[in-house]
Structure to design on (69 residues):
């Protein structure tokens, strides 16, 4: 993910409410589970997607922590 994409994602995430961020995190965790399942079955072609989803989950959790301060 490029720096400009990351900045736009963070801007988008900061515009969401805590409930929406929690829902986004749940969606990303489901996607991560599916990607891990595909990787274990040997059907995952784009293995970099795993790292991207993990980092996006971390970004969502960071924004949630900022809201809870």
């Amino acid at each position: 993910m490029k720096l400009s994409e990351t900045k736009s994602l963070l801007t988008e995430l900061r515009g969401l409410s805590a409930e929406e961020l929690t829902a986004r995190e749940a969606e990303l965790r489901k996607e991560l589970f599916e990607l891990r399942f595909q990787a274990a079955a040997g059907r995952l072609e784009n293995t970099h997607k795993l790292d991207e989803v993990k980092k996006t989950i971390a970004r969502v959790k960071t924004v949630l922590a900022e809201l809870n301060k």
About this structure: The chain is about 80% helix and 0% strand.
